[in-house]
Amino acid sequence: MSAVWRSLRQTLLAVLGDRYAIVVMVGAVILYSFFYPAAYRHQVAGNLPVLVVDQDHSATSRELLRILDGLRVARVVGQPADLDSARRQLEAGHAEGIVLIPANLERDILRGQPAKLVLLGNGAYLGRASWVLGSIADALGTFGRDAAVTQAAFMGAPQAAPVTLVQRPLYNTQEGYGSAIVPGVAELIVHQTLLMGIGVLLGGRRLVLGRRLHFDLPTLAGMAMGFGLIGLFGLFYYAGFTAWVQDYPRGGNPLGQLLGGTLFIAATVAFGLFIGSFFCTRERAFQYIIATSIPLFFLANLSWPAVMTPRPLVWLAQLLPTTSGINLMVRLNQMDARLDEVSRELATLAALLVIYGGLAIWRLHGRPSGGVRP
């Protein structure tokens, strides 16, 4: 047991003494906790360009234009003379939406007739189109209620709606980009920086020795514990402190997070030791992370549903700790899931820990060779 603790201490000192390792395993985690969420601090897309085609040219249409220009999510960038001109600008990427104010809008409102407004959006970017169209639709709804008051002065009070729909989001209470994306990306950041640090240390050591690495089991266990402690620090730093500072949904099932998070980091360390055993230089770790970060996030099916993903990719994704780990931590931290509700993810991570742990032992506990072996 003393050999394990000695190896644990040496691993932590090696991380602290290696500037590349300390930067990627600790510095990058802290830097990303402030840098990455800053892009989503408003939770929604903002200041998106919108075109308004005003065919009415009345006091009512000018009031509607003023309401649209006051939205935070939209910015009126032009008033083309006709719809065809506006559509050409939209297709050229100069705007995200078009609001068409038809002729006789004010006259129809004053006569008590139904007034129509046309709203067109650019579907090339679904997220931005959704926000700009939804926000403009809300503004048009407010305008419509004001128009109903004007109509009531001529036609009498309108009949109240018999049913009122009240929508209350359950987990993503702000219905924003940040609350939907950042918690999942946080686990990916921890996973990737941990793998990068392991790869940097193993690749650097192998470059110095000039041969395949070999460790006895106590040393290997101590190394895994050292890397695991660093990974747990990063994981709970995001799940706790960063989520609190950035005001993201948090705090659900803390005991489940402790169990699930420990299992996720353990599987990640085992995976990292196995993958890192193939790196002949420390630069290989950076190349691996750059090439895999985006595919790993999409394979986790947090932002892209699994039912829309080809089945072979869904099966392949189960071999990656990030797939189960990201979904596990999001459900436990953001959605207050019970352990039985994430039993599949827990079982998958336990299986990956055994598989990659065995492969890491096979790669790093085998007999050393006089030359460099793959």
Descriptive labels:
single chain; four-stranded mixed sheet; 374 residues; elongated; mainly alpha
In short:
The chain is built from 13 helices and 4 strands. By secondary structure, it is mainly alpha-helical.
| Spatial arrangement of strands, main beta sheet | 2-1-3-4
- Topology order in helix (H) and strand (E) letters: HHEHEHEHEHHHHHHHH
The parts where pLDDT drops under 50 for at least 5 residues are 159-166, 369-373
Q: Look at the structure and give the mean pLDDT.
A: 78
Question: Sheet with the most strands?
Answer: 4 strands, mixed
Span of the ends, CA to CA:
31 Å
Number of helices: 13
- The portion of residues assigned to helices is 55-70%
* Tally of DSSP β-strands: 4
Q: What class would the helix/strand composition place it in?
A: mainly alpha
Shape: elongated
What would you report as the Rg, rounded to the nearest angstrom?
Answer: 28 Å
Give a verbal description of the structure.
This protein has 374 residues and is mainly alpha-helical. Helix content is 63%, strand content 6%. It is built from 13 helices and four strands. The protein has helices spanning 2-17, 19-38, 59-69, 83-91, 105-110, 126-155, 177-209, 217-245, 254-276, 283-299, 311-317, 321-334, 343-364, and strands at residues 48-54, 74-78, 97-101, 118-121. A four-stranded mixed sheet has the order 2-1-3-4, with helices on both faces. Helix 3 (59-69) links the parallel strand 1 and strand 2. Helix 9 runs antiparallel to helix 12. The longest helix is centred in the middle third of the chain and has 33 residues, at 177-209. It is elongated, with a radius of gyration of 28 Å. The model is unreliable at 159-166 and 369-373 (pLDDT under 50).
